[in-house]
From TrEMBL:
<dbReference type="Pfam" id="PF00072">
    <property type="entry name" value="Response_reg"/>
</dbReference>
<dbReference type="GO" id="GO:0000160">
    <property type="term" value="P:phosphorelay signal transduction system"/>
</dbReference>
<feature type="domain" description="Response regulatory">
    <location>
        <begin position="5"/>
        <end position="123"/>
    </location>
</feature>
<feature type="modified residue" description="4-aspartylphosphate">
    <location>
        <position position="54"/>
    </location>
</feature>
<keyword id="KW-0902">Two-component regulatory system</keyword>
<dbReference type="InterPro" id="IPR001789">
    <property type="entry name" value="Sig_transdc_resp-reg_receiver"/>
</dbReference>
<protein>
    <submittedName>
        <fullName>Response regulator</fullName>
    </submittedName>
</protein>
<dbReference type="InterPro" id="IPR011006">
    <property type="entry name" value="CheY-like_superfamily"/>
</dbReference>
<keyword id="KW-0597">Phosphoprotein</keyword>
Amino acid sequence: MAFKRVLIAEDSSVIQNLAKKILEFQNFEITSVKNGEQVLQLLDKESFDIVLLDINMPVMDGMECARQIRQLPDAQKAQTPLVAITGNARNYSPEEFKSAGFNDILIKPLNFDALVAKVREFTGGEV
């Protein structure tokens, strides 16, 4: 069985490493980067089953990154499920997340059970 590929964009290495360990334990294949620009560079060469995007990142934030993913010329990549990870969801309305192209939102501090459940929901991974 091929592992589902998860791309995590998160500038906090603590959260990045925790999420990576937890998802790898659930048999997901994890790639992690620090900002939205790196996400777009990777998507140029590779495909992922889901992208987890922190909203507050240097270089390019999650909102801008999501908008650019939705405009990719490769229709399949443009439809990749996107989940926002944010510590300040109150700064944005649900409509703003939706219009940026997010499928869902996870609030920090991350609930790792919810993280695993969301990733499974969007990738069709085994429960």
